[in-house]
Amino acid sequence: MSQPLYQVVYDEIIKRIVDGRYPPGNMLPSEFDLGAELGVSQGTARKALTELEKRKIVERRQGRGTFVTLRTPENSMFHFFRLRSPEGEQVVPEPGTEKVVRRQSNKNERGALFGNPRSVFEISRTRNFRGEPLSQEVSVVPTDLFPGLPDRAPLPNTLYVLFQQAYSCVIIWAEDSLRAGVMGKELAEDLGVDASKPVLVAERKSYDLQGRVVELRTSTFITDNVSYSVRMD
Amino acid sequence: MSQPLYQVVYDEIIKRIVDGRYPPGNMLPSEFDLGAELGVSQGTARKALTELEKRKIVERRQGRGTFVTLRTPENSMFHFFRLRSPEGEQVVPEPGTEKVVRRQSNKNERGALFGNPRSVFEISRTRNFRGEPLSQEVSVVPTDLFPGLPDRAPLPNTLYVLFQQAYSCVIIWAEDSLRAGVMGKELAEDLGVDASKPVLVAERKSYDLQGRVVELRTSTFITDNVSYSVRMD
DNA sequence: GAGTGGTCTAGACCACTTT
DNA sequence: AAGTGGTCTAGACCACTCC
User: Fold this and answer.
1) Do A198 and B181 touch (CB under 8 A)?
2) Sequence spans of domains, chain A
3) A5-68 topology per CATH
4) What number is the average pLDDT over the span A132-149?
C-alpha cells in the first residue's frame, strides 16, 4: 500500500471537519462505527483518532466520546499566547485600543499569505497587564477569507476563536520568530511609554487545518513584568 | 490495574538506560524479546517504545532496530539551540571565549538545581556568527553531578553531548523564559559592542531523564542577524 | 534468509459517563 | 444497562536492512 490506512482515515476525518460534516464541538462516530463505515478495523480508526488528538484537532474523553476541538478563549490563550508572569502563571491581558483597516498588501504579505491576496485586513490592538501597557499586536489577514470582519468590531480578545466560529478557519499551529528591539517613537506614543524602551518583537505565521498561512502577526511585548515562555522537548 | 502495563515497561526501560544496562547508542532488544522478557505482548512493548521515541529517548528505524538516542552536536543544536538566520536556516555559531569557575551557589540556584547544591560550576562562553559577536551564555551546574568538569576545557560547543557521554546525564527537555533587555556595560566590553544595544535574554532550566534540574543557563543574544524561532503546535 | 520495525486485524476486558 | 474510549493480547503480513 502506498499510504497507510490510518492516514487515509485521518485525511477523511480532516476533510469532514473542513467541509462542515463534523462541526466544531460535535461528537464523532465511535471508533467501531467509524471503522465499519470506512472499512477498517477499530484499531486502525483508533490510530487515526489518536493522531488527530495529538494535534489537538479532536478531543477524546473516556466514556463520553470524541469531539471536534472547539476553540475557546482559554485553550487559544494557552496554546498561542506564551507570556507568563514572574510567578510562572499564564498572563491574561486586558484589552486596550483596537483598529481594523482594509488596505493593499505589500509584497512580503502577498508572498506569504494563502492565495497571494492583494487586499488584506490589518488589525492593530494594544493590551495591558495589571494596569500597565503590555503589548501591541498587528495581525494581517486576507480579506477573502474573512469577509465582513471589520463589521464585527469590537473583536474578541482571542482572534482564533472568531476565525473558527465565524469563518470555519481553524488555526492549528503557528511559528514565532523573536528578536529584541526598541519601541520606536510611533508605538511609544500609542502605548504611552519611553521610545528607547527595549521590547521583544515576535513575528508570527499562523497555519490552519488545511495548511494555509492565514495570518501574519507582529507583536511587540514589553517584558518588564512578563516573560515569553518556551518549552523544548 | 493502577498503572497501565506499557507505563511499567516504559519506566523499566528508562531505569535500564539510567543504570547503564542500555548505554547510549546501543540497540535495545526487539519488541518481541522485550515483551517476552517483561511478560507482556509485543503490542504493549511497542506502545512503550513508541512513547520513548516521541520523547526522543530512543530512536527506531525499520529493519535496523531501536537504539538509545545518542546526543550529537547536530541533534543537540537542532533541539535546544533555536536561533535561525533570516533565511530560516539553523545558525551554527563559532566558539568565542570560555571560562569555567567553581563558586558558591546563590539562594536562587540552590533552590532550583537538583540536590540543592552549595557548590556549582559556572561556565561562561561567548559565541560569534559570521564573524560578528552573537551571544554570551552562562551555565550553572552542580559540581556534584559533573566532577572534574573544569579539567575538560576547552569544552565542546554543545554541552549536552558532554553531559551524556562523560556523565551519563541526558538532558531531555528544557524551558526558556525570554525577555528583552539591554546589553549592559560589563558584557558589552566582553563582546565588543555598544552597551545600550537591545538584546534577547533567555533564562533556561534544563531537565534530565530522571526529571532533575541539572542546569540553569542565562543566554544573551544579539538578534541583529538572527531570530529565536518557536513552533507552537 | 533472518531479523527488525510498521501496519492491520479481531477479539477481549476494563474504566468511565450517561441514561 | 448501554455506549464510549483505554488497555492488552495473539497473530498475520509487509517493508526495510544486513549478512
Assistant:
1) yes
2) 5-68, 73-228
3) Arc Repressor Mutant, subunit A (1.10.10)
4) 96
CATH superfamily, region B73-228: Chorismate lyase-like (3.40.1410.10)
Triad A203, A206, A209: Cα angle to 5°: 170
Interface contact B227-A173, CB threshold 8 A? no
Q: In chain A, pLDDT over 90 holds for what percent of residues? A: 93
Q: Which parts of chain B sit beneath pLDDT 50?
A: none
Distance B35 CA to C7 C1' (A): 19
CB atoms within 10 A of CB A209: 19
Chain A residues in contact with B229 (beta carbon < 8 A): 175-178
pTM over 0.85: yes
C-alpha cell, A209: 487545518
Output the CA–CA distances (angstroms, integers) from residue A59 to A165, A194, B12, B109, in the order listed: 17, 45, 30, 39
Q: Give the chain B residue nearest A177 (alpha carbons).
A: B229
Q: Which residues of B touch A230 (CB under 8 A)?
A: 82, 175-178, 230
